[in-house]
Amino acid sequence: MTYGTMAAPEANPRANAALAAGCEVCNGWGSVITFQGRHELCQACQSPTERECHDSG
């Protein structure tokens, strides 16, 4: 019998490298580590609103 099991940690987010190219916020990685220690997609280059802006330009 197993006691004290915890849920598996979330997988690292998968960034779109094409969108991340040249991003100064994440240095082209497409993801950042937050102050809380979480691995998240870069809001500057990976957010849906930014992709729409890049596509229309």
Explain what the structure shows.
With 57 residues, the protein is α+β, with helices and mostly antiparallel strands. The chain is built from two helices and two strands.
Strand order of the largest sheet: 1-2
- The structural class is alpha+beta
The unreliable regions are: none
The count of DSSP E runs of length 2 or more, i.e. the number of strands, is 2
Pattern of helices and strands: HEEH
Oligomeric organization of the protein chains: single chain
Largest sheet: 2 strands, antiparallel
| Beta content | 5-15%
General shape: elongated
Mean of all residue-level pLDDT scores: 79
- Helix share, percent: 10-25%
- With helices defined by DSSP (H or I, 4 residues minimum), what is the helix count? 2
Task: Supply Rg.
Answer: 15 Å
Terminal CA distance = 58 Å
Structure described in brief:
By secondary structure, the protein is an alpha+beta fold. The protein has helices at residues 17-20, 48-56; strands spanning 31-33, 39-41.
Chart the SSEs and their pairings.
Blueprint: H1 17-20, E1 31-33, E2 39-41, H2 48-56
Antiparallel strand pairs: 1-2
Q: Which labels suit this protein?
A:
57 residues, alpha+beta, 2 helices
